[in-house]
Design brief:
2 strands; mainly alpha
Length: about 290
């Protein structure tokens, strides 16, 4: 069992870090460290795909657990590529480079370790429910009359926890996908806005009426769902640190807090914050409740 887990981990890590290093070399050539953002979902896709490739045989349960990150990663990669590519280096990375006070060559080299490989490390940690549970599928073995070894799989079929996890994943997938679609339409509609920054329109309809970050909420739901699916396998429960870390990142580090640090300065967004839940979808407050 431990051997299978390690095989999954090292093979997936080799693919993820290899592709990240290749992407980094491209980012150096085009001077755009923000290419790494597009890889975030694709990295998880790679982990799921590698673990499916290594699985023998691939049971219905393993197909389910492996495909959940593949489907999510494919959608997110396409969305981020269409949104980000061709618009130059993101201002976050420009600010990081200026704060570092390093020359161009030194900064690009540093970005390999701190940004690209740092993301690779996070991908491997958060995807633990996948590579751990897909490596613990063999519970024992029996020998048939022909002396041929037949392995018994503890999690060959899809049971209750996997069904509940998949339903939670589906809710999260829809929240993230619909939220991203609504945000894209809103940004396209207001792309020519040239008024005062503090009066810039705020998206407060659709899913964004009930939570300020439906896409982040959906992302968290998906990883808690994947963890529930993983709990069908021996030791899958032990990877609970993965959805906890993902949820923390989304709510306190690179997601919600980082985004609202700047947007929170706008008057319209301040009112939006007062009326609308920051993460979990809830009915919005009345204006009279926040004035």
């Amino acid at each position: 069992m431990l051997t299978d887990i390690l095989v999954n981990f090292f093979h997936a890590a080799a693919v993820v870090f290899g592709l990240l290093t290749l992407l980094w070399s491209i980012s150096v050539a085009v001077k755009d460290a923000s290419l790494v953002d597009v890889f975030w979902g694709f990295g998880f896709l790679c982990v799921g795909a590698v673990c499916l490739y290594l699985a023998d045989p691939v049971t219905p349960y393993l197909w389910l657990l492996g495909l959940l990150p593949v489907i999510w990663g494919a959608r997110l990669t396409i969305y981020l590529a269409m949104r980000n590519l061709g618009h130059g280096e993101d201002k976050r990375y420009v600010a990081m480079r200026k704060r570092s006070k390093l020359n161009e060559a030194a900064w690009r080299l540093r970005s390999l370790f701190s940004i690209y490989w740092g993301q690779g490390l996070l991908i491997m940690i958060v995807s633990a429910p996948v590579w751990v549970s897909m490596g613990t599928h063999v519970a024992g073995r029996v020998v048939n009359s022909g002396d041929e070894a037949i392995y018994i799989h503890a999690n060959a079929y899809i049971n209750l926890l996997a069904v509940l996890g998949t339903l939670l994943w589906l809710i999260g997938f829809l929240f993230e996908a619909i939220g991203d679609w609504q945000l894209s339409r809103f940004m396209k509609k207001h792309k020519d806005y040239d008024g005062p920054e503090e009066d810039k329109p705020v998206l407060n309809t659709g899913l964004w009426r009930y939570t300020r970050h439906p896409n982040y909420f959906g992302n968290a739901c998906m990883w808690w769902g994947i963890w529930l699916v993983a709990c069908e396998a021996p030791w899958g429960w032990a990877t609970i640190f993965a959805p906890i870390i993902m949820t923390y990142l989304l709510t306190n580090v690179s997601g919600k807090d980082l985004l609202e640090k700047d947007m929170g300065k706008r008057k319209n967004y301040q009112l939006y914050i007062k009326r609308t839940s920051g993460f979990f979808p809830l009915p919005p407050k009345n204006k009279s409740e926040v004035e």
